[in-house]
Design goal:
The strands form six sheets. A four-stranded mixed sheet has the order 22-23-1-24. It has 14 helices and 24 strands. The termini are close together. Strand 12 and strand 13 form a beta hairpin. The chain has two domains: 204 residues, Alpha-beta prism (UDP-n-acetylglucosamine1-carboxyvinyl-transferase, Chain), CATH 3.65.10; 217 residues, Enolpyruvate transferase domain (UDP-n-acetylglucosamine1-carboxyvinyl-transferase, Chain, Alpha-beta prism). It is globular. Helices cover 30% and strands 26% of the residues. The protein is α/β, with parallel strands linked by helices and 429 residues long. The longest helix has 14 residues. It binds uridine-diphosphate-N-acetylglucosamine (UD1).
Length: 429
């Protein structure tokens, strides 16, 4: 299993290109199930989760082709993938595949919408809390499907097609909103989705569906209205930049000091996180080229942050913020409201010398002067990268184990950091 060795203490200076968003690319790829025509996606990040989803979609009968490099493109230019679900050959999504990536459960919506049935494995446990799918199943029932659970699988049937419905989510759910969108576009009649997730990745999916012929208004707000259509066609779509990757590197620069342009980053996708960094004393400058993050000399000021659905501070940046605040001049309070049990990184950050106290859903981080390198490992994607951030500022060597979590969500992490001066290397095997 690969490991990453980081020797801390170097400031970051230079340019980091921002990749396409994993959390947008995955539902966009799944949307290819909704049409027999070709969906061509550009700026798709090269990630383990993308490769796994291609396998899962292939199992349902989706052919794919990855375009070769064009002149001027580099190893970091996102890839273009053509997906064609000419015919769906299998409506079963097996346990072996779904259990490795929760988002693959989202195939359930398009499969039922197009084929009238789906048999999808329940995703099972996860390192960051229970993460149920009850609201996704509620959505399908509201559309008139029957839902049965059998031997760890969800069997969803709607032999006479789905009917538009009024859906009001009791809590904001990204996956629930994606499912409602992808099921409603081919449902008969009107669907109104209230308390919808406003995340930019939902709006990106909706924009692509509109290009495919769907009739959707309000995506990106808390009320989305969909008029069902009989069929969708193919289109081309460019995946939006990854706001979590952007915020992660912004925090890395804040941690080490230095001056980095996050090329292609779009500030409106992560304004709440940029505001928190400004409060912490980091300089943020926005231009057409992206977001420039700078910290020279001044220390890091503590902050008080609560994770919230978009446009609030994202839960997917909580672990990274905690790493940064481990060296702040004072005590930071971080409240996690989206996922229970999303403090798994605390124990590992402590191994590097961070001082963090937990009280229910609140973490208090007492900033320390120095962190010290140590072997660490993490149980999820965002937690792993928080250890990388801490290691970049720790004295001596840190060995980050279980790197496959990073490969799931961060494209070319080592080369992006190394080109800005970080001492970071992957050790294979
Ligand atoms: C997506 C993101 C993930 C991010 C999360 C919150 C992808 C691939 N993943 O995950 O990176 O951290 O949004 O921004 O885009 N819930 C239920 N019942 C359900 C569904 C969800 O109770 O049926 C709860 C969850 O346990 C959680 C909350 O709703 O407490 C929000 O989860 P949700 O927005 O659905 O997260 P995901 O879509 O799984």
């Amino acid at each position: 299993m690969d490991r990453i060795r980081i020797t801390g203490g170097e400031p970051l200076n230079g340019t980091i290109p921002v990749s396409g968003a994993k959390n947008a690319a995955l539902p966009l790829m799944i949307a290819s199930l909704l049409t027999e025509e070709t969906l061509e996606l550009h700026n798709v990040p090269r990630l383990a989760d993308v490769a796994l989803l291609l396998r899962i979609l292939g199992n349902h009968g989706v052919d794919h082709a990855i375009a070769g490099k064009r002149p001027g493109q580099t190893a970091e230019t996102g890839q273009s993938i053509r997906l064609k679900a000419g015919s769906i050959i299998d409506t079963v999504a097996p346990y072996e595949l779904v259990s490795r990536m929760r988002a693959s459960f989202w195939v359930v919506g398009p499969l039922v919408a197009r084929m009238g049935e789906a048999r999808v494995s329940l995703p099972g446990g996860c390192a960051i809390g229970t993460r149920p799918v009850d609201l996704l199943l509620m959505v399908l029932e509201r559309f008139g499907a029957t839902v049965d659970i059998d031997a760890g699988y969800v069997l969803v049937r709607a032999p006479r097609g789905l009917k538009g419905a009024e859906i009001s989510f009791p809590k904001v759910t990204v996956g629930g909103t994606h499912t409602a969108l992808m099921a409603s576009v081919l449902a008969e009649g009107t669907t109104v989705i209230d308390n919808a997730a406003c995340e930019p990745e939902v709006a990106d999916l909706a924009q692509c569906l509109i290009k495919m012929g769907a009739r959707i208004t309000g995506a990106g707000t808390s009320q989305i209205v969909v008029e069902g259509v009989a069929r969708l066609g193919g289109t081309e779509h460019t995946v939006l930049p990854d706001r979590i990757e952007t915020g992660t590197y912004a925090m890395a620069v804040a941690m080490t000091g230095g001056d980095v342009l996050l090329e292609g980053a779009q500030p409106h996708l992560l304004q709440s996180a940029l505001d928190v960094l400004t409060q912490a004393g980091v300089e943020i400058a926005v231009s057409n080229a992206g977001i420039r993050v700078k910290r020279n000399g001044a220390g890091i000021s503590p902050v008080d942050v609560t994770t919230e659905p978009f446009p609030g501070f994202p839960t997917d940046l909580q672990a990274q913020l905690m790493a940064l605040m481990s060296r702040a001049k004072g005590t930071t309070r971080i409240r996690e409201t989206i996922f229970e049990n999303r403090f798994m990184h605390v124990q590992e950050l402590a191994r590097l010398g961070a001082r963090i106290r937990l009280d229910g859903d609140v973490a208090y981080v007492d900033g320390v002067e120095r962190l010290k390198g140590a072997p660490v490992m993490a149980t999820d994607l965002r937690a792993s990268v928080s250890l990388v951030i801490a290691a970049l500022a720790a004295e001596g060597d840190t060995m980050v184990n279980r790197v496959y979590h990073l490969d799931r969500g961060f494209e070319a992490l080592e080369s992006k950091l190394a080109r800005c001066g970080a001492r970071i290397e992957r050790i294979s095997g």
